[in-house]
Specification:
CATH class of the largest domain: Alpha Beta
CATH architecture of the largest domain: 3-Layer(aba) Sandwich
Distance between the termini: 66 Å
Structural class: alpha/beta
CATH superfamily of the largest domain: Vaccinia Virus protein VP39
Largest sheet: 7 strands, mixed
Strand content: 25-35%
Oligomer: single chain
Radius of gyration: 22 Å
Amino acid sequence: MHSATVSAKGARRWAAGHPWIYRSDLVTAPAADAGAVRVTDQRGKPIGVALWSPLSEISLRLLDRNPDVRIDAEWWHETLARAIARRSALAGETTACRLVHGEGDLIPSLVVDRYDHWLVVQLMSAGLERFRSEIVRTLIELVHPEGILARNDVPLRRKEGLDTSVEPLHGTVPDELEVSEHGVRYLAAPWRGQKTGAFLDQRENRVLAGRVARGRALDCFSYHGSFALHLARRAAHVIALDASAHALTRAAENFRRNALSNGEFVEANAFEYLKARERDRDRFDTIVLDPPAFAKTRAALPGAMRGYKEINLRAMRILSPGGMLFTASCSYHLTKPLFLEMLEQAAADSGRRLVLRELRGQPLDHPEVLTIPETGYIKGALLEALD
């Protein structure tokens, strides 16, 4: 195995629990193509084995702290089996979950999502790509899927010098797959849908919103209606709001799939819609705000804060007394403290008194490692209007 030498700063980063070493902390680069390399500090002490990406700013991603380990078929079998076993509690609740959450499962740059009898994978580093065949073979042994699809159409791969494509790696994968989630059914689109086909990271938050839903409900940024479906099981009437007519067509199909007839599907810009409802002094008993990431870069954070505050402020103003608002952010750069600060400012400007009932994060299958902030991005809050 080839070797890399890292600076004291890079070694301290690993010791503190973060798996990435940047190019700036690489003292001696491996004389090798992308793959697994042994890593030593500047004193010559071996400190582990890492994935090596020659073209990436993230040069090394820690795989194993044992510098003598072999990254072979046995290693992949044991490592992937441990990650999959952590999801055992979800078996009776849903047919779709994340089996591997990259750094959150100590397998950097690998995502594996399960949709019933099929898997969708993303290999997001050059070092990991070297082990594609071993990973696929191990997943077949452990999960016995009918098909495995690679959703490698992510921009991150370009920074690694890799192609971006969507291709089957094993068997066949349908264009659409039905997901059963805590009693709700919906269609996922593994070939063309968002992420790997559906938003699995909000699953438990959808259940929470559905549990408190009542009366007249509004689901903003509804996409295929995943939140709206849960709301509709308790609310009298649900408006699923989205700017995409195509997404709302899928939402309506999902409502029919669940024999729900209390949904209304509105194509509109959420900011303009909320502004109009406030102007008309409209009221909703239950509101969900699950927008796309407003802050995709750190530079975009100030504008994103304004955007998050505006939609939350307007939602608070049209919430009925005693009404419930579930609001979320999937922007990694909007930290938990900033998320709460934004909600406090919106509540103060709304003139309403709102109680924080629950703070939410990511579900069991999207683990957030405390020393790896990049593994956590979902923030959620359930608020109740007192007046």
